[in-house]
Amino acid sequence: MPGTGRPTSRDVAQEAGVSQSTVSLVLGGKWSGRVSPATAQTVREAAGRLGYRPNLAARSLRLGTTRTVLLIVPTLSAPFFGDVYQGAARVAAEHGFGIVAYPWPDDAGPADSPFAAPHEAIDGILASSLATDVASAFRGTPVVMLDSDPAGAAPTVVFDVASGMRAITAHLAALGHRRIGHVAASIGQWTFHDRGAALAEAVRALPGGSYVRSAGDLEVGSARDAAGRLLDLPDPPTALVCDDDLISAGAYKAARARGLEVPGDLSVTGIDDVQIATALEPELTTVRLPAEALGAQGMTALLEVLDGGTPRPGPLPGELVVRGSTGPAPRTAP
Amino acid sequence: MPGTGRPTSRDVAQEAGVSQSTVSLVLGGKWSGRVSPATAQTVREAAGRLGYRPNLAARSLRLGTTRTVLLIVPTLSAPFFGDVYQGAARVAAEHGFGIVAYPWPDDAGPADSPFAAPHEAIDGILASSLATDVASAFRGTPVVMLDSDPAGAAPTVVFDVASGMRAITAHLAALGHRRIGHVAASIGQWTFHDRGAALAEAVRALPGGSYVRSAGDLEVGSARDAAGRLLDLPDPPTALVCDDDLISAGAYKAARARGLEVPGDLSVTGIDDVQIATALEPELTTVRLPAEALGAQGMTALLEVLDGGTPRPGPLPGELVVRGSTGPAPRTAP
DNA sequence: TCTCCGAAGTCATACGTATTACTTGTCCCG
DNA sequence: CGGGACAAGTAATACGTATGACTTCGGAGA
Asked: Does residue A333 carry a pLDDT above 90?
């Protein structure tokens, strides 16, 4: 049903007593030399009076561009991605771009029917943590990956998790910990795989350091069980490094269920530094991943791609935040 | 820059040896009577060969519709809204609609420039928890409000928080609690105001019931201080009802800082039942708000509005989830 | 044999915008 | 006083799609 009664640029033109082209010239901003200030003022007033807003579909059709970027996230249910969005949106706004978020769970892709999904009216994609499918499903659309395997074809912004893991290891080592357990996320994402590899390497580089590992889902109950398996070992670790703040919550539970105090009997660390880190008791020692910067860097890179460039963004360092969940290693094994 | 090389329906037509109209007729689905099965097959094959995807801008311009709905949420950093999204998306998909999420923080609106924000290419809006501004900023676009003041002009889907508060009160009363503290969110949103009013009424209806209240921001530290003010009263409450699960985390901290055990010395409840509720120790007794249903009902209502109707959705009841944070009231005041 | 009808397509057009090519009028300078 | 440069604005057009109006053609009924 075309013509919903919304005013068009032609209506504005009529109201202002000029031609449609003039309205477009005025409201377009550029072309300042081609229309007199007086006329421009008249047009702007007419537009305001009518409450004119340009039809985006028409503009997109004409320009072949939407100035909109799609941010694909695995879920909207994780606080982390709010910051990613903020960072991307900030940079985007500086360049007249907008961002819409699209949660893409692991299953169905949009490439099923010959008809497009509504989120295809975009110029580019920022894809967080979905390794390969995105690029192929949106073939032809520029993509920048966030915190994903940098070996892929698309430009990728990654966290320097390795340095974060080294920082955690150094912190724990300074407290006297040598036997360190890793509670991993069993998701097959690059970023988690990388965390595990970096931690194992850092711990083994430690004099007398030993590394044990157990994996669970990214969910409190499963994380509790995974942590419990480490604590039930004959020679249990004195510190648990968790792949994610939420996993740490599970580690706390496993510890308390066995009568262990955190951090007196067991030190625990997380990664991310989201809200839950300060909601826990004791508050969590963790590595703060700069999610806002991830979004911002990603958007910057995407703008570069849209300009025809091939950016090679550097890794973003994490920052160790020491709170109450880490303490000196106990003298005797519990 | 029009013509990015993407195939158009005209290209498909040429490839298939038919006219552009025929391509449109075939791919449109309806009009089955107007084209022979053989031709339709040819067209579909050509489209597949070329990887044709319709230009959404052109379609929107032609149809005056985008089949896309904007979901406005206060933040992407709160897990609650992920479920809202899922519910809305499920119903939307059944009707060929798509949904994009747009986090709208409290400040800047999109109505600044005469030029539209990219998220205006939509047919309707689901707005969560932003009372008035949305409707005015998007004047002319159908809006359905979620969990907001039902006194507004737009159709509104609300939670029945009153019944949830009554359930909490009954639960606490059965455990012997009479003096009940309310740790409120100081945000001026309808839903929180309503929670407070409902709780106060329920508690005062209790024989011997007394209600005290303190407010803080929706943030752990502030919530801890607010809860602390109640615990430091001469005659402190034996149970704290929190406006939100996150606030409960603050209440835990305030209690432990004063040497109080949860639930031995103090019972605590939340509202929402998000992830943090089970991450806390003890796990939180709370009222589960059906966020998925909120999104689904909202989308259903919005579809009705788009059809010219004026839906009057009923309130969605919450469900009391009893976990470990509530217990019998202590005999003597701590 | 002539007419009429349905099937199978094609033609033409409009949606609202941005921009290029053109027109008109004014002023300045030789 | 003539002409050209420039300012200020207008006319025309294309972007890609969906669809109502039209065309063509083979066959069936009179």
From this structure: no
pTM for the structure as a whole: 0.84
**pLDDT per residue as tens digits for the range A249-277:** 999 999 999 999 999 999 999 999 998 99
Q: Distance between CA atoms of B207 and B203, rounded to whole angstroms?
A: 9
Residue A231 CA, distance from chain mean position: 32
Note the pLDDT of residue A108: 43
Helix axes A37-50, A9-16, angle to 10 degrees: 120
Could you give the domains of chain B?
9-54 (1.10.260.40), 64-158+291-315 (3.40.50.2300), 161-289 (3.40.50.2300)
How many C-beta neighbours within 10 Å does residue A178 have?
Answer: 16
User: Cα separation of B45 and B36, whole Å?
Assistant: 14
Asked if residue B114 lies in contact with residue A48, where contact means CB atoms within 8 angstroms, the answer is: yes
> Residue A290: what pLDDT?
94
Beta-carbon contacts of residue B263 (< 8 Å; ≥ 6 apart): B282, B324, B325, B326, B327
Match 């290693």 to its residue by tokens: A329
Whether nucleic acid strand C comes within 7 Å of the CB of B34, the answer is yes
Sheet holding A98-103, edge to edge: A156-157, A143-146, A124-128, A68-73, A98-103, B98-103, B68-73, B124-128, B143-146, B156-157
Of A2, A140, A246, the CB nearest to B6: A140
Measured CA to CA, the distance from residue A124 to residue A117 in angstroms comes to 15
- Within chain B, which residues score under 70 in pLDDT? 1-4, 105-120, 129-139, 332-334
User: Taking Cα atoms as reference points, which of B210, B191, B208, B192 lies closest to residue B152?
Assistant: B191
Identify whether the C-beta of residue A228 lies closer than 8 Å to the C-beta of residue A323. Answer: no
Q: In the 8-state DSSP scheme, what is residue B286?
A: E
CB A56 to CB B253 under 8 A?
no
Specify whether the CB–CB gap between B318 and B164 falls below 8 A: yes
Contact B61 A55 (CB under 8 A): yes
H-type helices in A205-265, by residue range?
A: 220-231, 245-257
User: How far does the CA of residue A77 sit from the closest CA of chain B (Å)?
Assistant: 4
User: Is the model's pLDDT at A120 over the cut of 80?
Assistant: no
Type and span of the H or E element at B85? helix B80-94
- In sign, the C-alpha dihedral spanning A195, A197, A200, A206 is negative
Between A74 and A177, name the one with better pLDDT: A177
Q: Which nucleotide is nearest to B21 (CA to C1')?
A: C10
Work out the mean pLDDT of chain A and round it to a whole number: 87
Report yes or no: B118 and A98 within 8 Å, Cβ to Cβ: yes
Which chain B residues touch A278 with a CB distance below 8 Å?
220-221
- Chain A CB contacts of B4 below 8 Å: 64
Name every chain A residue with its beta carbon within 8 A of the beta carbon of B6.
140
Return d(Cα A222, Cα B107) in angstroms, integer: 39
Strand D: positions under 7 A of a protein C-beta atom: 7-12, 14-20
Determine whether the interchain pair B56/A118 forms a contact, defined as Cβ–Cβ distance below 8 Å.
Answer: yes
